């Protein structure tokens, strides 16, 4: 059958398409900028007749309509693979939960472990001449989702960039159950933030000299990775490569400055591999139909075995706090959920296995609470309920505005000394006293 005729037969309205959802179903909303909008509103309109519908998604930009209906938790439960700021607020209100994961394993979760997905609904780019709907900058785990979903509903958005890859970046019309032509909302933007702070600049100034020409980069999201990216764009570095989980605005700036060629990469030479991307308009315009960029499934981008093949791999990520054992928390403040594990551990491990590779965990030495009180991010022990994202055996370099330390091979007293050396001076004596109580401090440490 002609693809245009198949398209016509499968085309329907959002209200009709969501009739596929039944009470008790597991429904998937896709990922990040591919989260449905017209379908979400249509499903919310059915709330009175639906109960215990469990929805998966993640990194959303606005509250789903289904979670704004009266007595929402009786009708819908939101389950997130990775929390955005919107989802953090939803957790506090009830009916929203995080799904702990090692992000590189997510496609396998779908194919082997999860309860059947009855309906998958998500936004896509318009169908191409070969009958494929591109996932946009959301390749991640979408092909695995489509492999197991009983019903696939695509919401076409003409503003969705077409992100080239090579495998698993699109779904064919033959797999699709229903097609809905959405309202073509603009791509949601994730601001790059304001100018780098003095602390962020200080951290960046410590890291950039550690990056050699021809290095392959992974940047996490946040002020410090962005500050490093900005400084790289202004540096004399050349022939850099990209192999990352999330493609962010900083990569666009580095590429436009002529620093990225990918010609020194051991695999995917000349291409920038990424699992998903979100940022400002310039990012979506850069990714659209760009053959140098490679949208890929996350079980490829975040596979430690792939990362380790890339020489001089540089991984740069944030932390909420770090304790004197070297345990890194990047997910919560006590029991208060902040983010998720994502692929941080994948890149920490992969970078260290890379020939010449380095991983950097960055954080400011302190933060201020709502009352303006100063607190140390270097703590004796992680708070009750805080999550260990990277174990003490995995951390390589720890960086604050007060310095950079390498913790590989250090005994407990050595790493305690080094960690305290990059803490804020106002908290060092207190940290030393606590370290002494914990029997991880030697008197000879004190200089």
UniProtKB/TrEMBL annotation:
InterPro entries referenced in this protein's UniProt entry, alphabetically: AcetylCoA_hyd_C, AcetylCoA_hyd_C_sf, ActCoA_hydro, ActCoA_hydro_N, Butryl-CoA_acetate_CoA_Tfrase, NagB/RpiA_transferase-like
Keywords: Fatty acid metabolism, Lipid metabolism, Transferase
Keyword Membrane applies: no
UniProt-annotated binding residues for CoA: 220-224, 320, 343
Domain Acetyl-CoA hydrolase/transferase N-terminal: 5-184
GO molecular function terms attached to this record: acetate CoA-transferase activity
Protein name per the record: Butyryl-CoA:acetate CoA-transferase
């Amino acid at each position: 059958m002609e693809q245009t005729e198949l398209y016509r037969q499968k085309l329907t309205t959002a209200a009709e398409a969501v009739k596929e959802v039944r009470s008790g179903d597991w429904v998937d909303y896709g990922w990040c900028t591919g989260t449905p909008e017209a379908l979400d509103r249509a499903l919310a309109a059915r709330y009175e007749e639906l109960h215990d519908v469990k929805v998966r998604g993640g990194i959303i930009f606005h509250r789903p309509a289904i979670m704004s209906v009266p007595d929402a938790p009786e009708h819908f439960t939101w389950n997130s693979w990775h929390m955005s700021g919107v989802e953090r607020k939803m957790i506090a209100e009830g009916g929203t939960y995080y799904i702990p994961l090692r992000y590189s394993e997510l496609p396998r979760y779908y194919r082997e472990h999860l309860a059947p997905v009855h309906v998958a609904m998500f936004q896509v780019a318009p169908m191409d001449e070969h009958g494929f709907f591109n996932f946009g900058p959301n390749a991640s785990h979408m092909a695995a989702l489509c492999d197991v979903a009983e019903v696939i509903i695509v919401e076409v958005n003409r503003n969705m960039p077409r992100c080239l890859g090579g495998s698993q970046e699109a779904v064919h019309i033959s797999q699709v159950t229903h097609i809905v032509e959405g309202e073509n909302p603009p791509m949601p933007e994730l601001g790059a933030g304001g100018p780098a702070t003095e602390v962020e600049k200080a951290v960046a100034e410590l890291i950039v000299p550690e990056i050699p020409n021809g290095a392959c980069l992974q940047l996490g999201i946040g002020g410090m990775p962005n500050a490093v990216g900005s400084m790289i764009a202004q540096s004399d570095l050349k022939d850099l490569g990209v192999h990352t989980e999330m493609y962010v605005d900083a990569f666009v700036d580095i590429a436009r400055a002529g620093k990225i060629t990918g010609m020194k990469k051991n695999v995917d030479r000349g291409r920038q591999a990424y699992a998903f991307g979100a940022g400002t308009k310039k990012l979506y315009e850069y990714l659209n139909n760009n053959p140098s960029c490679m949208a890929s499934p996350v079980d490829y981008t975040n596979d430690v075995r792939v990362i380790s093949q890339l020489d001089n791999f540089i991984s740069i990520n944030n932390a909420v706090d770090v304790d004197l054992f070297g345990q890194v928390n990047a997910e919560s403040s006590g029991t208060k959920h902040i983010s998720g594990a994502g692929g941080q551990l994948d890149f920490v491990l992969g970078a260290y296995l890379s020939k010449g590779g380095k991983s950097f965990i960055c954080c400011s030495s302190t933060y201020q609470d709502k009352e303006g009180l100063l607190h140390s991010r270097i703590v004796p022990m992680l708070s009750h309920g805080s999550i260990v994202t990277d174990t003490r055996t995995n951390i390589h370099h720890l960086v604050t505005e007060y310095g950079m330390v390498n913790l590989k091979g250090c005994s407990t007293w050595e790493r305690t000394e080094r960690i305290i050396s990059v803490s804020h001076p106002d908290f060092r004596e207190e940290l030393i006293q606590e370290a002494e109580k914990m029997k991880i401090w030697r008197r000879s440490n004190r200089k």
